[in-house]
Protein: Tripartite tricarboxylate transporter substrate binding protein
Amino acid sequence: MPFARRHLMQFAAAALATLAFGAAAQSYPTKPVTLLVPYPAGGLSDNIARKVNVPLAQALGQPTIVDNLGGASGSIAAQKVLHAPSDGYLVYQGSPNELILAPLAVPSIKYKSEDFRQVHRIALAPMAIFARAGLPVANADELVAYAAKVAKEGKPLTYASVGVGSFYHLLGAKMSKDLGIEMSHVPYKGAADAFRDLAGNQVDIFITPYGLAQTEFIKQGKLKAVAVLTPQRQRLLPDTPSTTESKALKNFTAEIGTGYFVKRDTPEPIVQALHKGLQKVLTDTQLRAGLFAMGQEVSPAQTLAEADRSYKDEIAAYRAIAKAIGLQPGQ
Structure:
């Protein structure tokens, strides 16, 4: 076959494939969409996904499936999304934990935060410092005093996280550095595992978002809330003081958001369809009530540009925190 003819046929085939993919993007979705949760079932992330999937299925007109794939600070699930086609049928439910911090802390992770695009944030999570029931502290200042005491005795306070490089790891490390008190990091695959060991007195504290399940554990005496990390007391823990009410941790505040992400090169019509569906989800009264009950604050509506800009702002902010505590890959 002459070179010119072969080249023309290759060009035509590529053009037809592009047109076919474009048509598929315009008609998206035509089959079930999977929400990939980077933690085991039973934790807060899983519960959020199972509040979202039903109204999202109604908005998209196709079933929405929740798939749990925990491990490696959420990077296993993130890699699965990046290795999948850019067709919008595998959507990552994540946060700065997995997409910004994990690549900074885990040497084996090769993806970059910029490989993903945020379609819409779904919720913001207030956070608290939880402690095992047997820890002899009742507030932030008592916690700091106890941490200093056991560190001097050569038995540093242990703090749980959902993985090396996770936001919860950084918060524990930042608290340790700011106070000048040695503390020991204990990573878990997910929040459910961390809370199980906290309730079993296997780890001392866990700085994390929370929901009704944790408030029930407190009522049952299985764990205690030492302080909340918002400037004001929180509605699910009205009797728990804020860190801002303490002397030692008065500037120690934090919150974290959960959003939905696709590969950066996902075609715009697909991203727009997902975005439209998620905006509709945010108006669902059952979803809002469910998130509220879990202690989550429902995200305000975002345009696609706002969602992308807020993600880029988070990348800059979290990288600054990691730099401040000297986070190194493999730490």
Summary: The domain at 126-255 is CATH 3.40.190.10 (D-Maltodextrin-Binding Protein; domain 2).
